[in-house]
Amino acid sequence: MIWLYIALVFVVAAAAAWMFRFILVSALPRQGSLLMSSMPLTASFGLLMILCYVVLAVFSPVFAPYGEAEVFDKFNALPGDDPRFLLGTDQIGRDLLTRLIYGGRNTIGIAFVTTVLAFLLGAMMGFLAATVGGWLDQLLSRTVDALMAIPQLIFALLLITIFGQSTINMILVIAVLDSTRVFRLARAVAVNIVVMDYIEAAQLRGERLPYLIFREILPNATAPLIAEFGLRFCFVFLLIASLSFLGLGIQPPLADWGTMVRDLSQFINFASFDLLIASLPLMPAGAIALLTVSVNFVVDWMLHKSSGLKE
Amino acid sequence: MTDQELLIKIRGLKIEGRSEDTWNEIVHGVDLDLHRGEVMGLIGESGAGKSTIGLAAMGFTRDGCRISDGTIEFDGIDLRNASAGVKRGLLGKRIAYVAQSAAASFNPAHRLIDQHTEAPMIHGVSSTKESQEDAMALYERLRLPDPENIGFRYPHQVSGGQLQRAMTAMAMSCRPDLIIFDEPTTALDVTTQIEVLAAIRDIVEQFNTAAIYITHDLAVVAQMADTIKVLLKGDEVEAADTRTMLSAPKEDYTKSLWAVRSFSPPPKPPVPSGETPVISVNNVSAAYGVVPVLFDVNFNIYRGRTVAVVGESGSGKSTTARCITGLLPPTKGQILADGEPLPANYRKRNREQLRQAQMIYQMADTALNPKVRISEIIGRPVQFYTGLTGNDRRKRVEALLEQIELDPADYYNRLPTELSGGQKQRIGIARALAAEPKFIICDEVTSALDQLVAEGILKLLDKLQRDLDLAYMFITHDLATVRSIADEVVVMKQGKVVEQGEKEQMFQPPHHPYTDLLLSSVPEMDPDWLTNLLKERGVENLGDAAAARI
């Protein structure tokens, strides 16, 4: 029986992905349509899912049946118990579907901002280190080494505890910690570009650093950076979920998936008695997993494209 | 040779290559017969399909290629339809392959002799010990120094020429019937090339091995091959035995290939006395870190003249250029531009000083940013140095494109990846011209190009020099190029200038012994050249040839 469901999910997902690709191919102008027709079904599925998440996140108030922090008199309702609450309610009587939709908005939004910040910082520093070289490269690289030597989650916990818990602080701390990874990649990519003759030609022309970085190096480094952006986004997203799960991330009454998993986690113990109850914490966890997998599908495809491999 | 039995028989070979999702034919029905002990030269420009055909003779195609039609028979075995197992039994044992870059083809993590013994062991020809002894014998026969021990070195511990010979020895390890040589000496200096050529010829004769020798260098093929097949865009142009082919080529294309080496512009008037040189290199010494690489280099370059700097790799030619451009500040001495000393480091030079000296690079692929359009590649220096913007800038770029004989309407918006090698090199020239310089450094600008294309570039450079009164510093190891375009020659060896002077005087004896060695090492079209040269140097034995290097 369960296998039938899984098979059904697969078929529906594949069909949706195929439909989505078909629509994209026919709707986009020539160049985009060519690109899309070479897209594998996995990437198409990933793209479709990401699109759904983005729409849900942007228009949360439209889709959510109730307000984010609205509390009802019926708590711990199971899915199907009450027609008013499609997915049931939590321990203090908030509608789970509403929380799930708003949670997506907060988690994805914050993760996105954090990743963008991490990339701006990391890529800039990485390019700078590779282009200028010498002591600046040593200084930046060794600092980054030192930061990377400390386990990220523990370091993040420590820093947030020091600077005090707030959303801004969390964004900044994670952005800085994650920028070290971006720095490594950006520097590695740029080091290979900097030795090219066209960079030497530009240097001998007397071009200044900003031109070198933005006009000569950046265009050649975008493909790996975009691919990395997708991966980083997932990691940041998971890190925020972990922090929230530990109580240091996004604070109530703001909804977010990590906190939801934590709040509902004890229900997993009921799995041997009632699968429906045990599935409650799996809903936000599944939302996290689905987005992560979707982003990775798309990133895989982009990596494949940028590496120039043909089959 | 033809009385010997037929080894390779290829009929109507067609090969297709895939670009994006369509298959295009790149070899259009070529026939090829090779007898036992015969050496066939395959020549042609890049894209002629010579490597593809060479590989097909082993029953192999590169990724993205497939054999679409024709038959390939090796000693009666149908290679095209042979199973992987049958091919595995043949390759390495009866058919061997020597690649262009031995440095890239050896596994850097294993010793030479371990890589040598691998094939005989796998094919069960001999035991490790036997094949090790055989390897030493082959090394000796190929005149590698210290044949007993050289095999126990790693690839990075021997020189390029030695590596190429070790690779030939490896190909010989199972005494194959056929060896495919794919441009084995293209990456080597002329003096090293001689040793490798003589070694290859020697060993192929000794074991009566058949060989297919792929190259774009006619003079080389003239020394090596019994017969020559000329290819153009996947078609055979003509085939004949070497002497006939050299003395009486039939087709126009072949004649044009033969004619390339004869480009010689009219001589220029002598430099008026008392003129200040555009660039003068004064007692320059330089070092990489603590290793000194240049010693007291002196020469002047005058307006409208070309100074060719020649020498083997490692002789300090490019280092001198780096000193002039300011990328490597000299430890001693000075660079003067128009009599004024230039700051040693390019970062300290002002825009005007930077504008005066421009550079054209050897590898056009890495010299042009692949993500930047032609309009910007040329437009940026125009804007940067002359301050032109908008429509003025566009007009200037178009004028420059016309100057390098590319149609502006077609090329203005292209990316470098959409150009051929010769066109890329032209864009590199236009970028240098955009600065309106007085002096251009040309660093091996033609060595990566086919001969016909290279000739076009040389003609263009010569025309530009006459129109714009440019001074060139022409770095090259190709003496044919020097002969055609240089006014003055500077010969360098191990960071020192060993001889310098006017071209006519340089190509007349008496020479400095090193210049003599360089000059006499340039292969000539005469098929007896190598034999005569070795005799002249008094070295039947090549171990002495290495020793004879001064």
- The oligomeric state of the chains shown is heterodimer
The CATH architecture name of the largest domain in chain B reads 3-Layer(aba) Sandwich
Q: Any idea what the CATH architecture of the domain at 104-307 in chain A is?
A: Orthogonal Bundle
- CATH homologous superfamily placement of the largest domain in chain B: P-loop containing nucleotide triphosphate hydrolases
Q: State the CATH topology of the largest domain in chain B.
A: Rossmann fold
Helix content of chain B: 25-40%
CATH topological fold name of the domain at 104-307 in chain A: MetI-like fold
The termini of chain B sit apart by: 38 Å
Shape of chain A: globular
Question: How would you characterize the largest beta sheet of chain B?
Answer: 6 strands, mixed
Question: Distance between the terminal alpha carbons of chain A, to the nearest Å?
Answer: 37 Å
Largest interface: A-B, 15 and 26 residues
Low-confidence stretches of chain A: none
Relative strand content of chain A: under 5%
Characterise the protein shown here.
- The complex is a heterodimer of chains A (311) and B (550).
- Chain A is mainly alpha-helical and 311 residues long.
- Chain A has a domain at 104-307: MetI-like (MetI-like fold, Orthogonal Bundle), CATH 1.10.3720.10.
- Chain A is built from 13 helices and no strands.
- Chain A has helices at 2-27, 30-37, 41-58, 60-63, 96-132, 134-149, 152-163, 167-194, 197-205, 209-245, 257-264, 275-278, 282-307.
- In chain A, helix 1 crosses helix 3 (41-58) and helix 6 (134-149) crosses helix 8.
- Chain A is globular.
- In chain A, 35% of the residues are buried.
- With 550 residues, chain B is α/β, with parallel strands linked by helices.
- Chain B folds into two domains: 6-254, Rossmann fold; 279-508, P-loop containing nucleotide triphosphate hydrolases (Rossmann fold, 3-Layer(aba) Sandwich).
- Helix content of chain B is 38%, strand content 25%.
- Chain B contains 23 helices and 20 strands.
- In chain B, strands 6-7-8-3-9-10 form a six-stranded mixed sheet, with helices on both faces.
- In chain B, a hairpin with a 2-residue loop joins strand 9 and strand 10 (235-241).
- Residues 541-550 of chain B have low confidence and may be disordered.
- The A-B interface holds A 196-198, 200-201, 203-207, 215-216, 219-220, 310 and B 18, 64, 325-327, 346, 349, 351, 354, 358-359, 361, 363, 366-372, 380-381, 384-385, 431, 435.
